[in-house]
Automatic annotation (TrEMBL):
<feature type="binding site">
    <location>
        <position position="172"/>
    </location>
    <ligand>
        <name>substrate</name>
    </ligand>
</feature>
<dbReference type="GO" id="GO:0005737">
    <property type="term" value="C:cytoplasm"/>
</dbReference>
<keyword id="KW-0479">Metal-binding</keyword>
<keyword id="KW-0560">Oxidoreductase</keyword>
<feature type="binding site">
    <location>
        <position position="256"/>
    </location>
    <ligand>
        <name>substrate</name>
    </ligand>
</feature>
<dbReference type="GO" id="GO:0006650">
    <property type="term" value="P:glycerophospholipid metabolic process"/>
</dbReference>
<dbReference type="GO" id="GO:0046872">
    <property type="term" value="F:metal ion binding"/>
</dbReference>
<protein>
    <recommendedName>
        <fullName>Glycerol-1-phosphate dehydrogenase [NAD(P)+]</fullName>
        <ecNumber>1.1.1.261</ecNumber>
    </recommendedName>
</protein>
<dbReference type="GO" id="GO:0106357">
    <property type="term" value="F:glycerol-1-phosphate dehydrogenase (NAD+) activity"/>
</dbReference>
<feature type="binding site">
    <location>
        <position position="252"/>
    </location>
    <ligand>
        <name>Zn(2+)</name>
    </ligand>
</feature>
<dbReference type="InterPro" id="IPR016205">
    <property type="entry name" value="Glycerol_DH"/>
</dbReference>
<dbReference type="InterPro" id="IPR023002">
    <property type="entry name" value="G1P_dehydrogenase_arc"/>
</dbReference>
<feature type="binding site">
    <location>
        <position position="252"/>
    </location>
    <ligand>
        <name>glycerol</name>
    </ligand>
</feature>
<keyword id="KW-0862">Zinc</keyword>
<feature type="binding site">
    <location>
        <position position="172"/>
    </location>
    <ligand>
        <name>Zn(2+)</name>
    </ligand>
</feature>
<keyword id="KW-0520">NAD</keyword>
<keyword id="KW-0521">NADP</keyword>
């Protein structure tokens, strides 16, 4: 008997473009959500977009409340949940970079409430996905959470964000190459369920971003457009898969370990980009495609070395040798790398200098 079931949870309205922020109210009206919004934002994002979103809600006859969060923590998620209950909010709107969006996403999952994502930076694909990432104990990877009902990405605002956030978003997309490689390997070796559609979409998204690299330049608003579209596509791939597998393999495990070993030093996307150089080398060897990944990252102005990440060599080796331990996700790291193999890999790829 055929007994497969799948739920693909996707945003209904995705609005991307120059000056679309005021269309947030319209994109939400179409969703027929009941009640008033609770806007979850951060101090900077409030200035660049949050206040305007609140004013537009008021102009449309709503009574919005606001919570300003600074850190991605369960304490912040709890604060949002309590405020939503106290204010009797009907739905949540995350305005900002990855942190306020994750917090709104996680809170809406607990509250069983609709959630809308208004990214002010294109820093990674969490701004459009149904995955939430808040550190808990030793865990840094994402978990299933409420996907946004709508995404409103104003490229004028995103293009004005610090450039490194955009190059981090690019690198998060480029890392899809190795994530899919790891997923296919896990399918072949461990019979992990693989989705051809999600794998192909994720891989194509990385290819299209690299093919369009010429239009990704500091000061060009088109860059924000290209990167946001790629992040949406990557988020859809994760929704089709029902997991982060299409966009997260060993390069993400490496990055999650760096988040523990050297917290707050480098951006998520930049770390996974360097991780991708390393794991592509493991997949295809010295003559393989790792140089294409490195050159694509370098061309976009994303880091390709430990020094450019601002992370010391010892932390790179520690992350490489411990990354296989942190999640039940089979990758090219297998049962783990020993220290000499990790050092050889990191020096062969130029991520660290030979001692
Ligand atoms: N849910 C998921 O699947 C994923 C979640 N994450 C999480 O996302 C977080 C990192 O995301 P980020 O976006 O880097 O963090 P973030 O929300 O802290 O933003 C980074 C910085 O950019 C500033 N910023 C944002 N937009 C701006 C604008 N338009 N103009 C000026 N400044 C602006 C913010 O104020 C902040 O200082 C981490 O907590 C990480 O764990 C990372 C990857 C995937
Ligand atoms: O960052 C992600 C995809 O780009 C999410 O991956 P994780 O599930 O490893 O956190
Ligand atoms: Zn990522």
């Amino acid at each position: 008997m055929f007994d497969k079931t799948t739920w693909i949870r996707l945003p209904r309205n995705v609005v991307v473009g120059h000056g679309v922020l005021p269309q947030t109210t319209e994109a939400i009206a179409e969703l027929h959500l009941a009640g008033d919004p609770l806007v979850v934002t951060s101090p900077t994002a409030r200035e660049v977009a949050g206040e305007r979103v609140v004013d537009d809600f008021v102009a449309n006859g709503m009574e919005p409340a606001t919570v300003v969060v600074e850190q991605a923590s369960f304490e912040a998620v709890e604060r949002v949940i309590e405020t939503a209950r106290a204010e009797e909010a009907g739905f949540l709107v995350g305005v900002g970079g990855g942190k306020p969006i994750d917090i709104a996403k996680m809170a809406s999952d607990s509250l069983d409430m609709g959630f809308v994502s208004v990214p002010t930076a294109a820093s990674h694909d969490g701004i459009v996905s149904g995955r939430g990432s808040v550190p808990e104990g030793d865990s840094r990877h994402s978990v299933a959470a409420e996907p946004p009902l709508a995404v409103v990405a104003d490229t004028e605002i995103i293009a004005d964000a610090p450039w490194e956030l955009t190059t981090a978003g690019c690198a998060d997309i480029i890392s899809n190459y190795t994530a899919v490689r790891d997923w296919q390997l896990a399918h072949r070796l461990q019979n992990v369920e693989y989705s051809e559609y999600a794998g192909a979409l994720s891989q194509m998204t990385a290819e299209m971003l690299v093919d369009n690299a010429d239009s990704i330049k500091q000061g060009l608003e088109e860059s924000a457009w290209v990167v946001v579209k790629a992040l949406v596509s990557s988020g859809v791939a994760m929704s089709i898969a029902g997991s982060s597998r299409p966009a997260s393999g060993a390069e993400h495990l490496f990055s999650h370990q760096l988040d523990r070993i050297a917290p707050g030093t480098a951006l998520h996307g930049h770390q996974v980009g360097v991780g991708s150089i390393l794991t592509e080398y493991l997949h295809s060897g010295e003559a393989g495609r790792w140089t294409n990944i490195r050159d694509a990252l370098a061309g976009l102005g994303a880091p390709t070395t430990a020094a450019e990440l601002g992370i010391d060599d010892a932390a790179i080796i520690e992350a490489l040798t411990s990354a296989h331990e942190i999640r039940d996700r089979y990758t090219i790291l297998g049962n783990g790398m020993n220290e000499s193999a990790a050092r050889e890999l990191a020096t062969a790829t130029g991520v660290i200098d030979r001692a």
